[in-house]
Design a protein that fits this description.
heterodimer; A: about 170 residues; mainly alpha; two-stranded antiparallel sheet; globular; B: about 260 residues; two-stranded antiparallel ribbon; 10 helices; 2 strands; flat
Chain lengths: ~170, ~260
């Protein structure tokens, strides 16, 4: 890896981490009691440009940064691990390719139903001993809304001409 | 807007807690979240509560700032506490309706969970109120340093963090500008049904991404023009120093752990 590409990678990753924090704190969809943040878009963009483990680590860093700068939740290493795994799943699905619909569906299903519903519920249960049944039933409804939102937004995003061109330009520069 | 959020968190001061090494504060905050799970009765929670109050007192920051830290999470706390109160069985039953039960254990557990939330929020608020974000980035870099033996790019990660910290306010300002520009064109953010909200965000996200990529490109060109050669061997402007008071704090946390284990039922 040349120093030139290293500088580009560092600046782009730094700015995408900042963007994840901004999107997490400033933009969210509100539907009934559900709140869906848009930081997953920055994660998906990062995942299409950088290898899975770099995306995963950067997403975990962004989670920590969000806690320090604009806290919207309490710190828990468990949620940071979830953020790492979200980056990893997106990384393996989107890295250097324009994903097809079934790939987006599979990635968002894993993230929403596996990581958000399964793993995050586990952290909440371990931290606050929240009973499983009401915890899972409440969160299941939330993830049922999150899943199609993630799928639709990502499908649209990867097909916007200017986004595709920008991603191709930067993917080629590394 | 962002300046308030970013720099409003850190309150400059000369207190005992302000002068602690940020590495110590970060590690002890993680440690505190770990040992809070040792608490399982009134005496252990009281002990943690007194310890946290002492830490707050030593920071010389008004209690109101810590209570404000709880406010954004109040609905999450109430939701969790109510689940705990109405779905935990055990002890004397005061009222029941189908699966919903108001029992003695439920009430006690609800109070414990509330205390756990408040204590964790107080301690993480203490960290962010007494430590500037750049010092926290330095602390993360220092904590990651041992990973250099497995060729982990510690300096690059530190630089990434500094860039992210620097650009969060800039991107927030940029977002505000784009939002205002789109509002002037008739876009309603946060209004309408789910689909309408999703549609409203697209004209905001695309220019934000394109502008972010341009900023990254400009910064990379500036770094290359100044001969950026990676972080290895570079000197540092902010040097972290470990003092006796840091060792004292570590010993206090170890003593707290011992007391919690002793008081556990």
């Amino acid at each position: 890896m040349s120093q030139t590409s290293k500088a580009r990678q560092i600046t782009l990753l730094g700015i995408l981490i900042a963007l994840q924090t901004v999107l997490n704190s400033m933009f969210s969809l509100h539907f009934v009691l559900t709140k869906i943040s848009f930081s997953f878009i920055a994660t998906a963009i990062m995942a299409s440009l950088f290898p899975p483990f770099i995306t995963a680590f950067s997403t975990a860093l962004s989670d920590l940064l969000g806690i320090f700068l604009v806290p919207t939740a309490t710190f828990s290493p468990g949620f940071t691990l979830t953020a790492f795994l979200v980056g990893l799943v997106f990384g393996y699905t989107f890295y250097q390719k324009t994903p097809r619909l079934w790939q987006i569906l599979l990635a968002t299903l894993t993230v929403t139903m596996g990581l958000y519903l399964g793993l995050n519920s586990l952290w909440l249960h371990l931290m606050y001993q929240t009973p499983w049944l009401p915890l899972l039933s409440g969160r299941f409804i939330q993830e049922l809304i999150t899943f199609p939102v993630y799928t639709i937004v990502l499908s649209v995003l990867f097909n916007v001409k200017i986004v595709r061109e920008t991603l191709q330009k930067y993917a080629g520069s590394h | 807007m962002m300046n308030k959020l970013l720099f409003g968190r850190f309150i400059p001061g000369e207190s005992f807690v302000h002068h602690l090494d940020p590495r110590n504060k970060l590690l002890m905050s993680f440690y505190y979240i770990g040992i809070i799970f040792l608490a399982n009765n009134w005496s252990t929670y009281l002990c943690l509560f007194l310890f946290t109050l002492l830490a707050v007192y030593l920071s010389s920051i008004k209690m109101g700032f810590f209570i404000r830290g709880v406010r954004p999470l109040i609905w999450l706390i109430l939701f969790t506490v109510l689940l705990q109160v109405f779905f935990t069985r055990g002890g004397k039953v005061f009222w029941s309706w189908g699966p919903i039960v108001l029992s003695q254990y439920g009430l006690v557990n609800g109070v414990y969970i509330f205390m756990r939330f408040v204590l964790i929020i107080f301690m993480s608020t203490l960290l962010t109120l007494t430590t500037p974000p750049l010092s926290l980035a330095d602390a993360i870099e220092a904590i990651l340093k041992p990973l250099r033996v497995v060729r982990f790019p510690v300096y690059e990660v530190a630089l990434m963090l500094s860039i992210a910290l620097r650009f969060v306010p800039t991107l927030m300002d940029e977002t505000e500008k784009i939002m205002n520009a789109q509002r002037a064109r008739g876009v309603d953010f946060g209004e309408g049904n789910l689909f309408q909200q999703m549609r409203a965000v697209v004209p905001l996200l695309i220019p934000l991404f394109v502008s972010s990529f341009n900023r990254a490109e400009d910064l990379a060109i500036a770094m290359e023009a100044r001969g950026y050669q990676g972080g290895e061997g570079r000197s540092k402007y902010r040097i972290l120093t470990w003092h006796y008071r840091d060792t004292f704090v570590v010993l206090a946390f170890i003593a707290l752990t011992g007391i919690l284990i002793w008081l556990r039922a």
